[in-house]
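Need tokens for this chain, all 222 residues.
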Amino acid sequence: MNNVEDVPAPWTLTGKGLIVLMRSKAEKLMADKRIPLDIRDSLKSSVSVLMYVDYTHSNAGPYKELLYVPGTAQFSEKLGNKRLLTISNIVVSSASSVKNGRINWGIPKNLCNFDVAQGPENLQEISLHQDDIPQFELAYRGKGFAFPIHTGLVPGFMKTLGQRWESKEFMYSPSAKGKARFAKVHVMQNLGNAFPDLDLNEVLMALEITQFQMTFPVAHIV
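Here are the structure tokens for all 222 residues:
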């Protein structure tokens, strides 16, 4: 990726997507070697999150991503001994997003191919594969009326994330606003090594984000 241009933070992004809240058992996640060891070592998980995002605009161009937040991990004294939400597994469709996500925020992005289709009755179908090897399948359908959402209503500890990357620690607090509606997840299946095994029975709630505007700020790096 040496020929990929550096795109420094902050970034402004727009798009749509899906947020899935789950109650995954911590002991199950801590035994899953697809979650990096430095996260598993101190992982606590009351609620985990799967997010699919279709960025129609970003500083690095349009791209798609699928990410997983298993819970919180403990960070060092240099970050105030904070316990922060952290992204453990993430794939994106853009090499620029991979390189700059790692540099700007320490997000452990990897490249993946996304196939997106619309099934019957507005069912959204997303299939992921790397080198023609299936990695993940997701299908959902939004329902009901859209309502406004804003990260200003979310407590700070729930919207500040921490990452470890190449012996550095990163802390950042994205902000966003947009519209959402409730959704039903019909398929959520790991098929490869990019994500832990997730169970539809663990889903607590899902929101289809019909539109959003987001800012990823400059991270605090130690």
